[in-house]
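User: Teach me something about this protein's shape.
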Amino acid sequence: MAFHFIAIVSDFSGGRRYGWHYASNQELDKERIKLFMTRMEKECGHVQIGIHKLITDDTTWDSVVKMDSFFDDVIITNKIEDFVEVVSNDQQLSAYDVAKFILSLYPVSHLKLQKLLYYIYAEFLIRTGSKLFKDPIVAFKYGPVVEDVFFRYKIHGSSQIDYKEDETFLLRTQEVAFTPSLIKVWTSEHGTAAIECIKDVLLQYGDLDAFNLVNKTHQTNGPWERAYREGQNCEITDELIIQYHQYAT
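Assistant: First, the predicted structure itself:
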């Protein structure tokens, strides 16, 4: 007889599930489980974790899957530090994550998407003092740009990007469907603040066309103007953004 403790989290953007597996031929060590929960809370904050306890014939993961196919697609580890690292990394947003969320709400052009990303990043930075994503924002000819997102969507040129998410997640407790991009933002480290910033920026700038937004980012003594050097793609630093936007109306 073997006792199992399994903690599972979902990577909504990647469509995978990760699990920490602790098994013993004797009663489970409560202190080891407490250590796991303490580290998760300390290093990852509030995370939705599915907890499962069961008994099988032996301590192997195969015995768990054999008993219940629910666990068949879980990527498993028995190392606490590995599990914590995976969860912590999954909480970090990329600019591409935010771009997909914007596009899931309504289609915009490649150029407009870049400007909305910039204003969302700036708003989040001013409100929280933290980076919304780690991707650098650089000064292109037509304003602030995140290069990773630029190269992903430049094929669309000046046309609207027709982006659709095929899957949705239905919470068992509510008959409400959520898109993967929304879940990714919502479950990130500063999910609530990120959603609020995205919503407020889209309400403020969403009806402006791309070149109106370009003109706004080209204001005299603004972050773009201070960073721009033709052909050099210089980074628009957080310091420049804060100096300008914390006093902007």
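Now, about its shape. The CA atoms of residues 44 and 89 lie 9 Å apart. Strands lie at 2-11, 16-24, 50-56, 74-77, 138-140, 143-145, 169-170, 177-178. If you'd like, I can walk through any region in more detail.
User: That's plenty for now, thanks!
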